[in-house]
Amino acid sequence: MAEVDDLRAACAAKLDAQASRAREFRDYYEGEQGVIALLDTEERRTFKTFLDESGANWCELIVNAVAERLQVVGFRFGDDQASEAAWTIWQANQMDADSELVQTDALVMGSSFVLVQPDEDNPTGVAITAESPLQATVLYQPGNRRRRIAGYKRFPEVPGEPGRDIEVLITPEEIITWNPWEIGPEVYPNPAGTVGLIELVPQPRTVGWPRSELAPAVAIQDRIQTILFNRCVAMDYGAFRQIWATGIKIARDVIRTEDGGEAVKVTRPFDVGANRLLTNENDGGKFGVFQESTLGGYLASVEQDVTMLAAITQTPAHYLTGHLVNLSADAIKAAETGLVAKVRRRSLHFGEGYEEAMRLALQLAGNPAAVDTSSEVIWADFETRSEGQRVDALVKMATLGVPREVLWQRWGATPQEIERWAQMLADEQAAAPPAPEPAPAPEGAPAA
Hints:
Layout lengths: L1 H29 L11 H4 L12 H10 L4 E5 L3 H13 L2 H15 L2 E7 L7 E6 L4 E5 L7 E9 L8 E6 L3 E5 L7 E4 L7 E4 L17 H21 L4 E4 L5 E5 L5 E5 L19 E4 L6 H18 L3 H5 L7 H7 L1 H28 L11 E4 L7 H13 L4 H8 L3 H17 L17
Antiparallel strand pairs: 1-14, 2-3, 2-9, 4-5, 5-6, 6-7, 7-8, 10-13, 11-12
């Protein structure tokens, strides 16, 4: 039991550090990180009302630009029946939808998890669930970043009420659960025989924490929101032309304080407004106005930072600015080249995690294809193409003798659609009347 307690403590410590880091990036994605502003003095605190108006969530756009292009449409194993079985398990666990949750969490917080385990209530006999990096983590064998020695999940007994957490430790041999209402842990044998909690990391590192998609964007996001805050202040206090006055006697009231002393309170001399007229009966009094603050510098600064954000994160500038004027298809493709390359890199690492999860799922289902290490994930096309471009390219490929099913795949059809189309084509060919035989040549006619 000492070894189990050590694993539990190590996993809990890792989850604490992982969740703390993940929450920072999650807040930026949700737009809840707050605005950095100087609130040192009493006057500055009066500007706090502008903080809620200074949010501009560019981080969400940066993540979604990648996440929306990552769509799993199938799995390819050496055996077509195994490919179909893998997709059946995938859909039976609603992973065609939940995989987007997993991927978005991983892009935002650096990693996410899927839990693969036997489930008699599932028609496939296997359950695959999405797990949050705020509640789950994996402990690896020292010196090996792929071999899992323990999985760990910690979640509140009642959502929204911390302090009464349920803890689950998964080892290859056992599944141990600690409940807040139980004195000791509940121990069960692990029917999978392996740690079924699999980590998905789009940007892994050989050493250190996985990298979030928002890592290079945080500093620029803070700077943009600080500029917007200052612009709001300038709009309210500087863009309105402030009035000055001289030669005016300001009324003062003397107020007794609680300790018996006296304090002087200055009475506001004028109630300034666009619909009010200022008057002064003192012949020596004068009025004037200060020059208003222009906002062009603030707008230019934000535009420059957004352009920098697009370059650093490989996000097409028109995604962030919304400016798309008379761009040709080639220009759009060139603008999205960096994003497509980035998505392809992320899919490589996501695919490794999904392939391992599906091999384990097939193993639990008793499918011999579980040992097929050549399996791969089939993704939807990462590039944005017009229908005309796509069809033209496929017609040219067909003239080179590329098989029809490969062309369908390049068009974007899922394995299920390809199978259905092939069957429909075979049925049409079987139902078609046979071609008439050529008429016999007349006697004495030269042979063709």
